[in-house]
Structure formats: C-alpha cells, structure tokens
Design a protein that fits this description.
The protein is mainly α. It folds into 2 domains: 94 residues, RNA polymerase sigma factor, region 2, helix turn helix motif (Rna Polymerase Sigma Factor, Chain: A), CATH 1.10.1740; 80 residues, Winged helix-like DNA-binding domain superfamily/Winged helix DNA-binding domain (Arc Repressor Mutant, subunit A). It is 75% helix and 0% strand. It is built from 10 helices and no strands. Helix 2 runs antiparallel to helix 3 and helix 3 crosses helix 4. The longest helix has 28 residues. The chain is elongated and about 60 Å long.
Length: 193
C-alpha cells in the first residue's frame, strides 16, 4: 500500500476482486492479527493457523465484512478470536478422545500409540506415491473422505464394479505394506518367532 492509497481504497479494490489489493490489506494487518493469535494459541504453529483462518474468512466473506472506522482490522481480530475458541475446543476434544483410548499394561502407551510407533509411515507414504493417480484418488475418497464406492466411481468416471475391484486390490497392497512395516508380524507369518 502506498502513501497515496488508503486501506479503504485497497479494500474497495479487493472487493472488486483485485488480489494485489487484498495482499496489501493482508500486509497491513498480518502482524497485528498474528500478535493476537500468539496470545490466544498454544504455540506459534497454531497462531499461524489462526492468522490463515482469519484472512481466509476475510476473503470468503469479503462482501459481508463489517468495516469499522474504514478498516477491516476489527473484523479480523474478532474472527481470529473466534477461530481460537474453535481451535481450543477441537484440541480439548482431541485430548479427551486420546485419553479414552485403552492403555496397554506393558508400557503405558495406548494401543493406538503402540501401533503408530511400530509403523513405518515412510513406507506407507511411498506406497501411496507409487499408486496410479486414479487409484490413490479412489482410496482417499472412500477410505478417508467417506464417499460410497459408487459415488467415488462416478466422480472418477469408472464403473462401480471396476472401483470395487480396484479397492480390493489396493486394500491388499496396503495390507502387505503394513505387514512389511511390522517386524514382529512379518516374523510370526514367516514362522521364525
């Protein structure tokens, strides 16, 4: 933003879809929103997420944003505060869920943590990267995003039958990759333990 342009001018241009004007508004208020976010968040990473959320919402709702005193800063600060409340609520829910997971008697680790420690995540990531794009998309849509096989197949332009066959093959491939990451499981299957 130059000395000759005000925030009001930049905001008017941003409302008209000028991304450079929106960037100028971002540059003008980012530090102030970040300082607030640092006070509200548990760490810098969460604070950065709050800033991103506030500015994303500013862009998404730009036509209904209440400008106070010629500035969008008050709206950004309120939005960042609300996002911090939502973030804290999510963290509390996550911690409560983790605490509810049964603990193993051996080492105090939850069953989920014990499996997570034993799994080689790089091997899974590599397996996913090696998949053809359409297979990876099918797996993500059904296993992670909760779409039905028929809906995922339609979105990918394949038949539901082909999708079922591919998913069966992909599950087997991932099951094999999982077994390779667990030395104890591999040893048991090989009969060496």
């Amino acid at each position: 933003m130059t000395d000759s342009t005000s925030e009001g001018d930049e905001w008017a241009d941003a409302l008209a879809g000028d991304s450079h004007a929106f960037a100028a508004v971002y540059d003008l208020h980012r530090e102030r929103v970040y300082r607030l976010a640092l006070r509200l968040a548990e760490n810098r990473h969460d604070a950065e997420d709050l800033v991103a959320t506030a500015f994303l919402e500013l862009w998404r709702r730009r036509h209904s944003v209440r400008v106070v005193g010629g500035s969008v800063l008050p709206w950004l600060l309120v939005t960042a505060s609300n996002a911090a409340k939502n973030q804290a609520r999510g963290i509390r829910r996550h911690r409560k869920l983790i605490e509810a997971i049964p603990r193993t008697a051996d080492d105090g680790l939850s069953a989920l943590e014990a499996v997570d420690d034993a799994v080689d995540h790089a091997a899974f990531a590599g397996e996913l990267r090696r998949m053809p794009d359409q297979d990876r998309a099918l797996l993500v849509m059904t296993a992670l995003e909760g779409y039905s096989t028929a809906a995922a197949a339609e979105a990918l332009g394949i038949s539901a039958g082909a999708a079922r066959v591919r998913l069966h093959r992909l599950r087997g491939r991932l099951r094999d990759a999982y077994r390779r990451t667990l030395p104890n499981v591999a040893a048991e299957e090989g009969g060496t333990q």
